[in-house]
Structure formats: structure tokens, C-alpha cells
Prior knowledge:
The structure is a single chain. Strand 1 (26-27), helix 2 (35-44) and strand 2 (54-55) form a beta-alpha-beta unit. This protein has five helices and five strands, in the order αβαβαβαββα. The chain has 142 residues and is α/β, with parallel strands linked by helices. It has one domain: HAD superfamily/HAD-like (Rossmann fold, 3-Layer(aba) Sandwich), CATH 3.40.50.1000.
Amino acid sequence: MRDAVKASPLVKDAVEILKSKGYSLAIATNPLFPGKAIMHRINWAGLKPEDFVYISSYEKNCYCKPHLEFYKEVLESIGKQPEQCLMVGNDVQEDLVAAKLGMKTYLITNHLLNINNLPIVCDHQGTYDDFFRFVCELPVLS
Length: 142
């Protein structure tokens, strides 16, 4: 699995910028693996688990994407309302469904997944470079 996970310096930098601006970050990956495996994926991606207030795993979650109940579990765990969050991901079916709860969405077009050729409806979309610029323009939270 290690070879399938590539570190992106832009994602790592975006995480650092978001944290410095006061944003809480959660990893809402499809909880198909145990926490230990997810931690390895995070490290392989060049990120630090301690940068995130929540990391999904099959020990914590009862539902998987694209079920809305998965997103409700994450929101409840982090104590946020959908309108306080932005779901960032590259899967049209599994990530953009969060909008049905009122969450804003950002579709990463690098490694885009759209196996059912669904229409793309999101608030924002772009490459890792575009997302990095987006993050830089976000305000600092008080």
C-alpha cells in the first residue's frame, strides 16, 4: 500500500497554513481500514496525525461514504454543524454528497474519481495548486 500513497508538499503546506489560521482539520476518509492503517497512510502522505482533531476509521465509524450518516458521525464527533465545514476530496460520488447536509465542498481534480460519470456540482474545484491558493486566501479565524 505504501507505493500507492504519494506525499504532496502542497497538501502538507495547506494543512500547516489552515492550522496557523485557526481552522480545525478532520480526516474523513472512507473508514474501510483500522486506525493503525489510516495512521500509516497519513504518515506516508507526509502529514502528522496530531494536526487533525478527528480521523475516521472502522473502529470509530458505523457508516461509510457516500452515506450521509457517515458525515453526520464525523460532524457529531467534531462538534460542528455542516455549514461550518468544507469537505475536500477527489471523489465526486463519495465526497460531494456532503453538500446534501449543507456542507460546502471543494473537489480536488488531481486523481479525480467519478466512476459513475455523475454531474459535478460543487462549491469549488481545482488542482492541488488551486487548493493551496484557496487556502492562502482564507481569513484567519479569531
